[in-house]
UniProtKB/TrEMBL annotation:
Keywords: Chaperone, Proteasome
Biological processes annotated in GO: proteasome assembly
One annotated Gene Ontology cellular component of this protein: nucleus
Highest taxon, organism lineage: Eukaryota
Name assigned to this protein: Proteasome maturation protein
Family recorded in the similarity comment: Belongs to the POMP/UMP1 family.
Signal peptide: none
Keyword Phosphoprotein among UniProt keywords: no
Keyword Chaperone recorded: yes
Lineage: Eukaryota, Metazoa, Ecdysozoa, Arthropoda, Hexapoda
InterPro entries: Ump1
Amino acid sequence: SFALPPIKSKPGQLEQFPFNEGTFGVPEVMTNGLSSVRTNLEVSHPVELSELNYKKNQNKMNMAVLRNTQGLHAPLRIAMELKSAKKIGRLPFLSSSNVMLESLTGHDIEMDPSDIFNVPEFNEVAGFPHAVVERSLGLL
């Protein structure tokens, strides 16, 4: 169908209910702690589910509009480019900057706290490059 995805979010429910029952069918309070049944069964706010999936919903909407205006080839080409950009890597001891992936998704022009605070790519990793490569090849 060529219809756009719905903008209004649907209330989310869990597929499985996370009850940790013991051997006698009673929740094990001593090992799992006290928990409220209400927090396990429903989302705390109707907008929370929509906000958690904002990027995914926005991407689906953009791809549907693109498919309706330019045809099926445009979303397929973008999906192919994203898939090939995710496969690009460096040697095992160098972390990838993902510049191509960020430029395709538009994340390169955004600034958020994860760009500055405590990102794993800025952590200093001490290791001998030859040993890391040999380990990744299965020689060590």
